[in-house]
Amino acid sequence: MSKIPLSPETQMLSFAYNSADHQGAVKCPLFQTSTFAFNSAAEGKAFFELAYGLREPSKGEEMGMIYSRVNNPNLEIIEQRLRLWDKGDACAFFSSGMAAISTMMFTFLRPGDILLFGSPVYGGTDHFIHHVLPQFGIRTLMFTSRDSEEDVLALLNAAYPGESPSFIYIETPGNPTNNLIDIEMCSRLARSFSQKGKQCLLAVDNTFLGPVFQRPLEHGADLVVYSATKFISGHSDLIAGACVGSSEVIAGVKAMRTFMGTMLDPHSSWLVMRSLETLKVRMETQAQSAFKVAEYVRSHPKVKDVHFLGFLKEDDPQKKIFDNQCLGTGSMVSFNIVGGEKQAFDFLDNLDHFKLAVSLGSTESLAEHPATMTHVDVSSEDREKLGIHPNLVRLSIGLENSDDLIEAIERAFDCVK
Ligand SMILES: Cc1ncc(COP(=O)(O)O)c(C=O)c1O
Question: Which end of the chain is more exposed for a tag (fewer CB within 10 A), N or C?
Answer without folding.
Answer: N
